[in-house]
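In this supplementary section we document a worked example of the pipeline. Step one takes a protein sequence of length 245 as its only input; no multiple sequence alignment statistics are reported here. Step two produces a three-dimensional model, which step three serialises into structure tokens for compact storage. The input and output of this example are shown verbatim.
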Amino acid sequence: MTSPVANILGVSFTTRGFDETVAHLTQRIDSGEQTHVMTANPEIVMLAKGHSAFRSIVDQAYVVPDGIGIVYAAKWTNQPIYERVTGVELVEALMAEAHKKQWNVYLLGATPEVIRLAAEKLSNRYPQARIVGYRDGYFRQDEEEQIVREIASKKPELLFVAMGSPRQDEWLARYRDQLNASLMMGVGGTFDVISGKVKRAPLFWQKLNLEWLYRLMATPSRWKRQLAIPRFVWTVFREKWRNRS
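The serialised model returned by step three reads:
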């Protein structure tokens, strides 16, 4: 039985909650299904709305609601998304499954120091998970084929790629059929958090759904990216009222 989806400005999100998402993705891996997971926030939705090539990648992915703006948009449009499925928490939960099932894991992206620290910390935290390889994201285009071959040779159940959006998902879509990975997921700045380089918002801010504001205060250079949020809100309400008329 397939789960219903919520359509937010043309992007189809799974409506599963966090625990159900982890269970379903684990089931897909166990059954040999290949999955490209995207954790989408308002910025990703607006990018997909404005770029048809990226939109086609999103349409083929398993899209989860990372971003409180998506949850609010679903509420405003009476659709059944009730909780966020954040990238950092999803990576940790999947690594816990990898620990239980002794899955192979490959990490790609971020800086050399960050990816090394992230691999080290994940290995210590989930010792039965097999981190079969990692490398930073600073490689030339002519090195990509060799990297793809290396990943494919390791046959990872989990492949986490941190190159920023939309590059990470474009890269996964381009090489999806060659990577020999069960679950592929673009993880943005997750390795920065896991490595300890970047601190996640305190739980108080998370519970208030103000993690985005904490990140903006901590890194003011993000303000241009945050402009996608008011544009997203305006577009959701405009579409809602247009559909009512």
